[in-house]
Amino acid sequence: MAYIEFKNIRKSYDGENLVLKNLNLQVNEGELVTLLGPSGCGKSTLLRSLAGFEAIDGGSIHINGQDVTDLPPGKRNIGMVFQQYSLFPNMNVAENIAFGLKMQKMNQRVIKEKVARIIELVELSGKENHYPAQLSGGQKQRVALARAIVTEPKVLLLDEPLSAIDALLRKNLQKQIRRIQKALHITTIFVTHDQDEAMLMSDVIHVMASGKIEQSGTPTEIYTHPETHFVASFIGNYNLLARSDFEKLTGQKKQVDQVAIRPEAIEYFKDPQLETDDYLYFKGKVVDETISGNILSYVIETEQGVQLRADHLYRTFNLLDKGEQVFLKVEKRNVLEY
User: Fold this and answer.
1) One domain for residues 325 and 265
2) Are 123 and 51 contained in the same domain?
3) Does one domain contain both 110 and 145?
4) 200 and 53 in one domain?
5) How many other CB atoms are found less than 10 A from the CB of residue 295?
6) Domain check: are 212 and 298 in the same one?
7) Are 220 and 187 in contact (CB under 8 A)?
């Protein structure tokens, strides 16, 4: 049995337009699960309904076999970290982390031990007596995380906690959160609209759109085998071709509406290649280029007038110039049909 179960969840804010549409979702114990999707897809609403901050219109929510649908937030034993740090400015790091334990009227000696252990876990040793105004954004977020997990909740919820942090620090915090989650083996649901963040951190990704789950799977499954047009367009910048364009490009008839090809699945060469039955071959010229970190991204217009994006790791020998003629090939198994 799943540790967390959402059963036929319905939610609307105006009585008509459903934000969550009979949604069903299961989370296994100890997993870090990500709800990934664009703004307005319902991911934060689903998270807040689990926490008890949003009442649902229909369905039920279970944690470890217990129906918590009508329980108040304080009775659900859930820790939550928001985008805003929400730290008490008049309390130092240790006092902020200890706040929830004091509300539980825990023994002072036990509180001190727990706080010390969590401070070490989140790598804030030496910052115990600092106040929020003396901390960086990343340190504040780690204090918020420590405060959420020190009470040993059944479930940890993370609602886009890193979206206000700069890119370099964000990557470091992603790794730290994943390390802490694994160390505590705490069942965690993470909300984000950043696909790279979801791919890096998750055991399982649930891609959401318009109040429902479009696809669930491991990061590798989601990326390599998107099951719907939406997932293919949202994950990994696929080349999405209408049937007419694909038929014009290849001369092959298709019975599907669209095909999708990952940019990194398209190989390019400066010289013609020996053709085999396992590949499709095209000829074209470079019409645009983008360098993003160590990724070279080229837009290539084929002789048939169809544009394809090809991504490759930066190498001095595979640089292309605008207007340069290139030869392309893509393995047939990497052409996904919809």
Assistant:
1) yes
2) yes
3) yes
4) yes
5) 13
6) no
7) no
Count the domains in the chain: 2
* The pair of three-digit structure tokens given for residue 187, joined into one six-digit string: 């069942």
pTM for the model: 0.90
Residue 257: CB atoms within 10 A of its CB come to: 11
220 and 269 co-located in one domain: no
Domain match, 120 and 218 both: yes
Q: Which two tokens stand for residue 2?
A: 């799943």
Residue where a domain stops, chosen among 193, 216, 234: 234
Range of the domain at 305: 261-333
Q: How far apart are CA 181 and CA 32, in angstroms?
A: 7
Tell me if 99 is assigned to some domain.
yes
CATH code of the domain containing 70: 3.40.50.300
Cα dihedral 254, 257, 258, 259, rounded to 10, equals -30
In the sheet that 4-12 helps form, which strands lie side by side, from edge to edge? 18-27, 4-12, 58-63, 66-67
Question: What is the chain's pLDDT, residue by residue, as a tens digit (338 residues)?
Answer: 799 999 999 999 887 789 999 999 999 999 999 999 999 999 999 999 999 999 999 999 999 999 999 999 999 999 999 888 889 999 999 999 999 999 999 999 999 999 999 999 999 999 999 999 999 989 999 999 999 999 999 999 999 988 878 888 888 889 999 999 999 999 999 999 999 999 999 999 999 999 999 999 999 999 999 999 899 989 988 999 999 999 999 988 888 889 999 999 999 999 999 999 999 999 999 999 998 888 999 999 999 999 999 999 887 777 899 999 999 999 999 999 88
- Cα 21 to Cα 42: distance, rounded to the nearest angstrom: 9
